Fold:
Amino acid sequence: MTVTISPAVSAHVAEGPDLGPATHLSCRECDASTPLGPFYACTECFGPLEVAYDFGRVSRERIEAGPRSIWRYRDLLPVPADVAETPNTDPGFTRLIRADRLGTELGIATLWVKDDSGNPTHSFKDRVVAVALAAARQLGFTVLACPSTGNLANAVAAAAARAGIRSYVFVPRDLEQQKIVTSAVYDTTLVAVEGTYDDVNRLASELAGEHEDWAFVNVNVRPYYAEGSKTLGFEVAEQLGWRLPRQVVIPVASGAQLVKVDKAFRELLALGLVEGEPPRIFGAQATGCSPVAAAFKAGHDVVRPVRPSTIAKSLAIGNPADGPYVLDVTRRTGGAVEDVTDDEVVEGIRLLARTEGVFAETAGGVTVAVLAKLVREGALDPDAETVVFNTGDGLKTLDAVAPVVGPVGTIAATTEAFDALRVAP
Amino acid sequence: MSSIVAVRVPTILRTYTGGESDVSVSVADGATLDDVVSALETAYPGIGARVLDDSGKIRRFVNVYVDDDDVRFASGLQTPTPDGSRVSVIPAVAGG
Structure:
């Protein structure tokens, strides 16, 4: 099918960067308009800038004929039409798994897992970085950089290596060893910073003001970068046969992913690529860093920052930039934001592994545990089709489960020794 | 007596400071962040309204630090800014 959202579509005039269907940046707070460029905060009110588009004609057929990566959705992203031809990690089109055994365990009739651990560096961050890299090239940046809780560091380091450009990544000093190694191996300039992620983020914001040729993917090119998360929503819809699920459970760190998945669903509806109602969107946090869940439960529309303390380090953002918008989206769609303890996170990881053969990182443990809690509390409809997101790979957070799983015993290499273990059949 | 407070200016506010990324203001002893913002507005007219909203509160998407502390964890605009302290104004829209 083909739908025209704007009848008066003409070829975009080639002025400035070629960012495909993107037309300008718009402030989410005060609607002030800013030209496409390396801008991320509104000069009027500091509000976040959002990419605005003129999509023209977009069809299912054209998308389906595209590459098996996020670039099949290039007509819906702020990237040039030939984006797939420049060196990048070609992320996306990860599997959507029918999760009947997990569904049975939790009492959910139709459950799917969107397993984004299958990306090139094993988390959803490859999506956003690929879009940021494409935009950064168009905006004239020569270096890729980021503050990160680990997954983004991996993705930036790998993308920069593949693109042949320098990179700088800044991480909290206490990050998991796995995530440090899986960043440093790409020969990035990896800097461990004393403090929390929020401290690292502040440093990056200051450095972005000093190094004008550095694209801090999630700071000064954040409007473009964040659009990459829309592809999670596009893929879920396409993989369901151009259908929207009724409910989605998404982890919340900065909150950008959840907000962009909602945007993706609404764009697909507006373009006529899918029909029906926007899904109910649920956010998942760890109790040790749950400022958005706390604001949701208290009925607030602002998020009070917290100092994080949780094993779910990839979600440990105490001052989440998109927190207020997560509140807007979850309330508008009839969802909720819920949190779970670290013990529940570990149990969530084990439950997903045991029932579906998917080893999630701690963030995935958070979403599975929140899914379980939402069902228990009656907040989520167990009879409605539901998708739960796993956004990262358990191999990066081995410490979370290492103390609670392992061999049933160590034995001599004899059948007698095995029999003596009395392992249940 | 007066105190000198250093202020780190974010890129989007440097149009008010003639491109300067670091400025300093003089405030009375015992001054708070509120006084620093007022002194900034006097020195660089227009900058105050970018940092504070119409009701005089720090805008939702502005983070302000006095030395290393986010003032939302301290006393907001009433956070003390003693002589030699360093104020950083940073857009909140970053990270994650």
Q: What stands out?
A: Residues 1-14 of chain A have pLDDT under 50 and may be disordered.
